[in-house]
Structure formats: C-alpha cells, structure tokens
Amino acid sequence: MTLNLYDTYSRSLRELQPIKPGHISLYACGPTVYDYAHIGNLRTYIFVDLLRRALEYSGLQVNHVMNITDVGHLTSDQDSGEDKMEKGSQRTGKTAWEIAEQYTRAFKQDLASLNIQEPVTWCSATDHIADQIEFIADLERKGFTYRTADGIYFDTSRQPDYGHLARLDRAGLQSGKRVDIGDKKQITDFALWKFSGVVGQRQMEWDSPWGVGFPGWHIECSAMSARHLGEYFDIHCGGEDHVPVHHSNEIAQTEARYGTRLANFWLHGAFLKSSEAKMSKSSGAFVRVQTLIDRGVDPLAFRYLCLTTHYRSQLSFSDDALDSAASGFERMRALVARLGEPGVPDDGYLDRFEAELRHDLNFPRALALAWEMLKSDLPDASKKATISRFDEAFGLRLALWTPAVVGVPPALAELMARRELARAERRWSDADQLRIQARSIGYELDDTAAGQQARRM
Ligand SMILES: Nc1ncnc2c1ncn2[C@@H]1O[C@H](COP(=O)(O)OP(=O)(O)OP(=O)(O)O)[C@@H](O)[C@H]1O
Ligand SMILES: [Zn+2]
C-alpha cells in the first residue's frame, strides 16, 4: 500500500516513494525540556506516532529519530531573550541539567501513557555540541555566516530560495520590520552560535572556535538529523508553528552545507487550541497528561479525541469534547472486550481501512469505519480480528483491554463485562440490574476510579 501524504514544501498531496525501498527515515523535532509537555505538544507527537504506525502498517520499516532540545531555545524567535532552559532553572531552583533530566523523564512517561512508540533513536542537543560546531564551521568556510557582537549568524541573503517552505515574503518582512534586529543584517538571519557574554554566568556553555557560548536552536536539528539519518532523508515533521522559522532555518543550513533539501517530505500537524486554557508552556497555565488523570480520564481517551480530527485541522479542545471522546472510547473498548477470541479479519473492511490511511492519514474516517464494522453483522470472531488490525494503526490498546475480572468466577466475569458495556453506554438501569444479579451469586460490585471491583458478600 502506497501512502499519499500532504507535503508542506510542495503544498501538494504526493505519493510517498521511499528513498531506500522498504525503509523510511523519519525525523521529528522533539520537545524543549524546560517544563512538562502540554496536551497541545502531545497532539503533535500523537500525529507523528499515527504517521509512523500507518507507515509500519503499510509494511515499511521506520527509522524514527527524535531530538531533545536541552539548550539554546531562546524565548523569542528573534534570537533574543533568555534561553528557555536557563529560565526553567530559575523558575524551579534546580540546575538546567537537572530540569533537562526531570522533564525528559516526564515526557517519556507521557508518551507511554498515550501509547506513543518511542523513537528508534533519541538524541539530545547537549550530546551533539561537537557536531553542531563542525556544522557551523563548515557553513563559515562556505561563506554563509557573519559575526556580530553577540554571536555567529546565518546570512539568509546568500540563499535566493530562503523561506520557500513557508512561502515567506522576504522583501515585505524586511521593509515592514517592527522589531529591533540588533546587529543582524536581515530580519530573517538567525543565530548559529551565541556568545555567553560574561563567561561563567550561564550553566550551559562550551568552548568553540568563535568563543565560549552555546548553539542556536535550529542548528541542532540539521546536525543531528545528518548524524543519525544522513544529509537527505524521507520525512521531517513537527507542529505547524515550525514552518516559518525553525524548519525554514533547518532547510537553509542543510542546503548551504550539503546542497540537499534535507527531507523529501515535510509534514506538519495543526495546533490544538483551547478556549478554556491557554495552551502554551511559556504562559505557565496548561493542561497536561497528569491533569487528565486527575480528572479521572484515561489518557488514551485523549488519543481517541486526536483520532477524531484530521491532523491538518485545528483541534478545539474543551471539557465537553474530552468527555464525549472518553465515552466513545469506553464504549468502543467495552464492545471489543465482549467479542471473544479473534478469527479471520474481514478483507472488505481491511481494504476500506487502508484506503482511508492511504489518503493523507484519514484517521477520522478510519475511526468511523471501525464503528461501522463493530455495529455490522459480521461474526464476533471476525470483528475481533479486524479491529485488532485497525488498532495496530490507532494505538488505542483495544484488544488488550479487559474489565478488571482477574481471579473471579466465569459467571461473574461475564456479568462484569456486560455491566462495563452498559456503563460505557450510559444504560444506567441495565447496570443496576446487573449489579443485583451479581449480588444473587454472592458478590457486591463497587465502582472505583480503577473500574469495577468485586467483593465477596
Ligand atoms: N498548541 C499546540 N498544538 C499542537 N502542537 C503544538 C502546540 N504548541 C506546540 N506544539 C508543538 O509541540 C512540539 C514541542 O514544542 P516545544 O517543546 O518546543 O514547545 P514550546 O514551543 O517550547 O512550547 P510553548 O510554545 O507552548 O511555550 C513542537 O512540534 C511544536 O510544534
Ligand atoms: Zn527541529
């Protein structure tokens, strides 16, 4: 099965032809670990995971690399302001190194809660300082850099097609500039290396041919993707906010050094927006995985919510949207838990499912198809096998889930499974009836945060 994916670079749907047959090299920009990830950030990583699962579903082997930004991401896109890591350190009273470790661990925990597969290779900016220095030195030799009082900058005027990814209007930007660009020659020029100023005041700084300092944010991705995937690879992805600055700058650096376009495909996930809370780490107030758990919501219900909106459409997050996703998700897994042992998947439904994934990862339609299949008159064994195949791409752990019935007699297990479904479908009087039936065989059923618990009466 060949996927058709929307490539931001060409602004078109293109057929994905792997550079190396059977394999896909995939780079996703990772988090800046100065705070917990919010569910907006995580929507983007769910999108990357769905992309990877669709690629694997189609039989491709995916070499997935993700970076951890633990230095050099400044609070302003104009290469001014504080380094987010140093700022996080001031906020928490911990060292920048400690918070990098703490929030990287928290991020990996979030990925696990959302059943997002970890990349094949993790790489962090601070582990690749030498690669970044070498990259900048090569750009300098090729004449793409200049020095200002505060750092080494990339000269975007050297590239006629700089900003093509974002269709930037360079002339308009330059003449309409309202921000102070300091010593930079063009508004679009960006820092490759920043000087520390007073040495010893920053926690994270390194020696370099240009003086003590730290790398700019963009250079890490060009250097690490080249190190782990090569100069030109299949797919680069991230959130849509990366198009005008971060990804445009990654492309500029790699084109300047290697003469290649960096990636064959550029895929971008649209934002999650919330009317109730500003979804931004920098603003301080945001919803994260732990917030969902505290509200008694299974994090996978958030994954289900993400599946209901196409990755290129904005997702409007609200409590109501989350509640209805949670009830859809609970109904689906309770239904699946009742299907029994799997038989043979249904080819007709599998074909239709693949067609939805093939068309730019149409997961909302694929999810609707799953509902249609579950409500159809296919035999249960066939439904179970078919939904298990679908779930390789959904990643909802549907087939693994069972109500908490371990160690209880089969008759009670059956009652509990039926009651679980009744509760998920909000058939409260049926649920009450089933509780009475459980009592008649000597068990009291308690509804707890972890699901139903059976107690001998
Ligand atoms: N509201 C959002 N919805 C979807 N993706 C988002 C959202 N905000 C950020 N992202 C994406 O999350 C990923 C990680 O971003 P990063 O850790 O750099 O966050 P950040 O930009 O520092 O956070 P913030 O801007 O919220 O302070 C990036 O791919 C980015 O595009
Ligand atoms: Zn990046």
Automatic annotation (TrEMBL):
Short sequence motif 'KMSKS' region: positions: 278-282
Transmembrane segments: none
Pfam families to which the protein is assigned, alphabetical: tRNA-synt_1e
Motif ('HIGH' region): 31-41
The protein's enzyme class: ligase
Molecular function in Gene Ontology: ATP binding; cysteine-tRNA ligase activity; zinc ion binding
Domain tRNA synthetases class I catalytic per the UniProt entry, residue ranges: 16-326
Reactions performed catalytically: tRNA(Cys) + L-cysteine + ATP = L-cysteinyl-tRNA(Cys) + AMP + diphosphate
InterPro entries from the UniProt entry: Cys-tRNA-ligase, Cys-tRNA/MSH_ligase, Rossmann-like_a/b/a_fold, tRNA-synt_1_cat_dom, tRNAsynth_Ia_anticodon-bd
Cofactor(s) in the UniProt record: Zn(2+)
Alphabetical keyword list: Aminoacyl-tRNA synthetase, ATP-binding, Cytoplasm, Ligase, Metal-binding, Nucleotide-binding, Protein biosynthesis, Zinc
GO CC aspect terms: cytosol
Binding site for ATP: 281
EC annotation from Swiss-Prot or TrEMBL: 6.1.1.16
Keyword Transcription regulation (UniProt): no
Coiled-coil positions: none
Record note on cofactor: Binds 1 zinc ion per subunit.
Location relative to the cell: Cytoplasm
Residues the entry annotates as binding Zn(2+): 29, 221, 246, 250
UniProt record, GO biological process: cysteinyl-tRNA aminoacylation
Stated family: Belongs to the class-I aminoacyl-tRNA synthetase family.
Matches recorded under PANTHER family: CYSTEINE--TRNA LIGASE, CYTOPLASMIC (PTHR10890:SF3), CYSTEINYL-TRNA SYNTHETASE (PTHR10890)
Subunit structure: Monomer.
The protein, known as: Cysteine--tRNA ligase
